[in-house]
């Protein structure tokens, strides 16, 4: 195999597919011609895994899955598909069987935990006036404002949804730690990465939104994983 694989990008809580915008542009520059960014409903891990699974099922040929934040739980849950060759985690949850994002979060509370608030319908939001300092403190004010206003809140119950059979036990993995992450504690990211025994772990001096603040470095890791699985 020598051709570049398809890339499927999976967003996390409080974001959507457009959070991958700069990574998409960077990968396109590098010759990736089959790029996909799933738009998950964030209503349950089962719903989001199924939505992503359906996208992968439409692709002929090898796929590398890339998950940011909660998107890491999604690719962990559904990444066992036969055409998925590798998993890349970007400041992401990588639960083991029987673990949930919420449970992992409680083990090491992140700095911005107090800045989350539920609404009357059970959706959990990052307080809009706290979004910049919580999610993306290394982005310009205007970009952070747009992210805050357009944030996609998950159902709070999704935090407690548990992974069944983690795909990272069967697929090669890569992991990017954000050392200034205020949404997932950096030491929690390091712990999840270490137990997966990834092919490579990198640390970026970045917020939770490393995919937006350091898209070239994120694309470098995706590029390296893609080259490895298609060598």
Automatic annotation (TrEMBL):
It comes from the Bacteria. Residues 7-220 form the AB hydrolase-1 domain. InterPro entries: AB_hydrolase_1, AB_hydrolase_fold, Sec-Metab_Biosynth_Hydrolase. GO terms for molecular function: hydrolase activity. Keywords: Hydrolase. Pfam families: Abhydrolase_6. This is Alpha/beta hydrolase.
